[in-house]
Amino acid sequence: MRWQLIVTAALCSVVVDARKLRGISLSYKRFYRERKSFLCIDGSKMIPFEQVNDDFCDCDDGSDEPGTAACPNGRFYCSNLGFRPHYIPSSRVNDGICDCCDASDEYNSHARCPNSCRSLGRRERLDVAGQMKTLDEGLRLKQQLIEEGVLLWRDKQAQLRELQQVAAELQTKMEEQRRRRREAELLKERVVKAAEERNDPRGRNGTATHVFQVLDGNNDGSVTLDEVRAKVALVRERDGVQDRERDRVQDGVQGWVLSEDEALVLLGGVHQVDLAGFRTSLWTRLREGDGIKIRGWHGIPGGLAEDEDEDPNIKAAESAAEKEAADLKKVEEAFETASMEISDLKTKLTIDYGPDWEFLFLSSQCYQLQVYEYTYTLCPFQQLSQRSQAGAEVLLGKWGTWEETPGKEYSQMRYESGEPCWQGPTRNVLVTLSCGTETALRSVKEPSKCQYEVELQTPVACQPLVKQQGVHSEL
Ligand code: MAN
């Protein structure tokens, strides 16, 4: 009989213990050692120990009811053996919904909770192993990209030096060519003047070259529709012309303004002609005096000269000057192109491509992703655009900066000043880089109107794991 009493008492104390300790983590168990009284963990109140987990809330911090739903601010500890332990709000205890994978939160409800911790743990371990494999592979690829980045950076520097060298040479050539053109011009002027002084009837006035120069108002070596309309006039009024140009008549002597179509016909159907084109189009019409004349023409009375009549010395001097001018134009264009390339390259080289230039390779690539009706194209360090199925291309943002996220440098890029949104903000994009074994666009979202969030996966975003220190998992 005495033994029976002892066993019953011992069993009761185990039952009581289990009830008292429900919902408590190992490290908190020391606060719940059965004594006569229990001190609320925030130290605010002392209560008899029987009142722990008695389904009535006594402590303000809810610490007397870790295993029941009695305290609104209480928390229940799921030990989840085989998976991850975690806390749930104690209001979820016995609410008929399984929250802990070890079913410990539903100890007194109708819910039938299977223990799924083992399978969850297994799945999580597989996931983690997969992630670790990706990380390892990503880090290996990143190392390669770092090495490539250094070489690429050197290439770009060499490219810049080369271009600067080319530009310097072109500059010298340009100065030399300017001198040659000046000399050719001076020679031409001297020859023309000499012919005029000799009063040579074959003087240059009225030759095709001269007239071409008269018409070529901006002296760029071609006569355009506007230049024709500015200098060439209709001698007679057209019958029945209704357009407003009619009113722009200068005066009886100056003639009537040509319409664009008329000027186009005179130029042989093209919008501008060089000297050769001029000779075969407008020039023949002018010489025939075919209802048109040059405004304010003070050339030799009797009209325009036959080409063959032109003084061969003048012809030679003029074509030499033309050649020098054309050569100069070529050198100037080449210099301008080289200067633009230098400036583009310099701009690109001022961008921060990471401490080891590991992001540099991205600058010469573009990545696409189709999301519903849109195709997005990201050209890193340049821009992001959106093309709809109808074909309209919208600029969502131009390269701006790396976002400054302490401890997470080089993980987010900002693209800004995209096209303005109708009744909304100017479009802009936040690109988040994530670790992966290949570089690809993973997602594009528009969480609020015209504000886009993009995920770009790339090995260069992989970071070696840093062991976390001083983090207490339960606090
Ligand atoms: C276009 C797209 C959308 C955007 C709307 C705003 O349809 O650029 O992404 O939300 O314009 O009007």
Measured between the Cα atoms of the first and last residue, the distance is 48 Å
How do the strands of the widest beta sheet line up side by side? Answer: 10-11-12-13-14-15-17-16
Using the alpha-carbon principal axes, give the shape: elongated
Look at the helices and sheets and give the structural class: alpha+beta
In short:
Helix content is 37%, strand content 18%. The chain is of the alpha+beta class. It folds into four domains: 95 residues, Low-density Lipoprotein Receptor (Irregular), CATH 4.10.400; 117 residues; 97 residues; 97 residues, Distorted Sandwich (Cation-dependent Mannose-6-phosphate Receptor, Chain A), CATH 2.70.130.
Secondary-structure blueprint of this entry?
Layout: H1 2-21, E1 37-39, E2 46-48, E3 75-78, E4 86-89, H2 117-197, H3 208-215, E5 223-224, H4 225-231, E6 232-234, E7 256-257, H5 260-266, E8 272-273, H6 275-280, H7 282-288, E9 292-294, H8 312-349, E10 367-371, E11 374-379, E12 383-388, E13 393-402, E14 412-417, E15 428-435, E16 440-448, E17 451-458
Parallel strand pairs: 15-17
Antiparallel strand pairs: 1-2, 3-4, 5-8, 6-7, 6-9, 10-11, 11-12, 12-13, 13-14, 14-15, 16-17
Residues 386, 394, 421-422, 446, 449-450 line the site of alpha-D-mannopyranose.
